[in-house]
Design brief:
This protein is an alpha/beta fold. The chain is built from ten helices and 20 strands. Among the domains are: about 150 residues, NAD(P)-binding Rossmann-like Domain (Rossmann fold), CATH 3.40.50; about 90 residues, no CATH class. The structure holds flavin-adenine dinucleotide.
Length: about 375
């Protein structure tokens, strides 16, 4: 039997474990620092309401990934999910992402249309502010983007943020259907406890050690120390911040976290029928609210809403800055063959979602099975 070590038991680590077990011939050890598998994707209960730490809507363009999740946790399609943004200066809710149909309804529609016609494009944008103003003009930027990004990334000035592909689907102004991501397969598990079964099924036969951390790493030798015991592996699959594997020798990779609040409302439903998420683009401290019933469809005379507030608590969001992404690359360069780094923190990649973690694990497993490092990967900087 070959020996594999998986570090972290979230979506990426558990899918990776499952792929190795399905392959056969692998003795897999998965170490998870927390008391449970799944991290923020795990469902808990509050006042009888199932919830996860922030929304964990399943959205993918990849049919194989969809079928994989659906085969383990049967998925209910979300037919017409809408996301909306509150813009205080108009005292109005608009579609999220910005939708072309909403512009005509805005009090300053003529100004916005003029600015959009004169917008100089994004080709030479040097930062996120220039990217958005170059794309949609100053007024839409001020209404939808500026304050949101200041709180999202905890900065005072959006021009300090590098340009990055922030916008859903790479569009800044959406047209066509009002469903937020109408080209993706959009779903959530039927089971009231959401994805919990996923983490049980994917780790069947795996040696899972919860509340465990690796004490020392010697990555070039694929060797670690756990509970004082020295262990060497044929393959290591990392899903935590890559700097941790090398004693942060090039410096620490920064992350942002989230404070999460649960609020029960005394009504059966809170949001309009098709609205799943509410975004807030003003100076409120929170970025987004989610009404869990929209995802879970559970019955109750009350309804649970989750609120996210960006903070320094937790490693939830890798930063979208070129300088720190370059730093992450220094760590990837130090990884020898048969050491992989996948998942959101493992790839140091903001915007990498559950479906992307699964897709990465599929590709990694193919590489382990077929050998060679030379095949297309969906995410640059993956290794
Ligand atoms: C607030 C929020 C909302 C989101 N909403 C959605 C959504 O609606 N849809 C969607 O598809 N995606 C969403 N995502 C993203 C998605 O949930 C993540 O991409 C995915 O869950 C990441 O999985 P992972 O395995 O890479 O990392 P994680 O789930 O973070 O797993 C890493 C694991 O490693 C463990 N760990 C950490 N350090 C150590 C250590 N030293 N030793 C051992 N174990 C360690 C952690 O406890 C954790 O269990 C959201 C993310 C956030 C933060």
């Amino acid at each position: 039997m070959k020996k594999a070590l998986i570090i972290g038991g979230g979506a990426a680590g558990c899918t990776a474990a499952h792929q190795l077990m399905k392959m056969g011939g692998w003795d897999v050890l998965l170490v998870e620092a927390g008391a449970f598998l799944g991290a923020g994707v795990r469902t808990f209960y509050y006042g009888g309401h199932p919830y996860t730490f922030g929304p964990r809507h399943f959205l993918t363009q990849n049919r194989e990934v969809y079928d994989y999740m659906d085969g383990i946790c049967p998925l209910r399609r979300c037919a017409d999910h809408q996301f909306i943004t509150y813009v205080e200066r108009d005292n109005a809710f608009y579609n999220y992402p910005i939708h072309v149909d909403d512009i005509a309804k805005m009090p300053d529609a003529a100004l916005i249309q003029g600015e959009m016609a004169a917008a100089k494009g994004v080709e030479n944008a040097q930062n996120l502010e220039e990217y958005w103003i170059g794309s949609v003009g100053q007024t839409l930027y001020d209404k939808f983007i500026k304050e949101y990004n200041k709180k999202m990334w905890l900065v005072d000035d959006v021009s300090t943020i590098d340009t990055f592909s922030w916008s859903p689907k790479g569009v800044t102004i959406k047209s066509g259907p009002r469903a937020a991501w109408d080209t993706a397969l959009s779903a959530y598990p039927y089971a009231e406890d959401g994805y919990n079964r996923f983490f049980d099924v994917t780790t069947e036969g795996v040696n899972v050690r919860l509340k465990t951390k690796i004490e020392r790493y010697d990555i070039p030798k694929r060797t670690v120390w756990i509970g004082g015991e020295k262990m060497t592996f044929d393959v290591i699959i990392n899903t935590i911040s890559p700097d941790e594997l090398f004693e942060k020798c090039h410096g620490e990779l920064p992350f942002l976290g989230r404070d999460f609040h649960k609020i029960v409302f005394p009504t059966e439903h809170v949001f309009p029928e098709h609205v799943y998420f509410l975004y807030y683009a003003n100076d409120e401290k929170f970025t987004r609210l989610v009404e869990y019933k929209k995802l879970t469809h559970h019955k109750s005379p009350t309804s649970l809403v989750g609120m996210e507030i960006p903070s320094l608590n937790g490693k939830h969001y890798p930063l979208p800055y070129k300088a720190v992404q370059k730093l992450a690359t220094e760590y990837y360069k130090m990884m020898p063959d048969n050491v992989y780094s996948i998942g959101r923190a493992g790839s140091y990649r903001y915007g990498l979602d559950i479906d992307d973690c699964i897709e990465q694990a599929f590709i990694m497993a193919k590489q382990i099975k077929e050998g060679g490092n030379d095949y297309p990967v969906p995410m640059e900087m993956w290794r």
